[in-house]
Write a structure and sequence with these properties.
Length: about 110
């Protein structure tokens, strides 16, 4: 059976534009994976930049989350040690006299 010139069979239609091989499918998959990886990397870099800007702002204002010795006062001029002392007094762990004595010591 002969076919007319310019007509396509089922097999021709299936591979039309693909040049009849698997190579484009593999390259297409690799390209898609590479594109997804690039988007993930960009999102992670953006998150790190946003977090970095937030931490720089905290350091400039004197507020730090560490709460260790030598750390600056937080909002309202309250040091982490003073905040802990206030919390202990509020919970009733220490009395009024001990609270005032330790507060004087912290205030210098």
């Amino acid at each position: 059976m002969t076919r007319a010139r310019g007509t396509l069979t089922r097999g021709d239609v299936m591979w039309y534009g693909m040049n009849g091989g698997w190579a484009w499918g593999i390259f297409g998959l690799l390209f898609a994976l590479l594109l997804i990886a690039a988007i993930v990397v960009l999102v992670l870099v953006a998150i790190r930049m946003i977090r970095g800007l937030g931490q720089q702002g905290q350091q400039q204002s004197g507020w730090t989350t560490g709460g260790g010795p030598g750390q600056g006062a937080g909002p309202g001029g309250v040091t982490p040690a003073r905040r802990i002392l206030d919390e202990r007094f509020a919970r009733g762990e220490i009395g009024l006299e001990e609270y005032h004595e330790r507060r004087r010591h912290l205030d210098g």
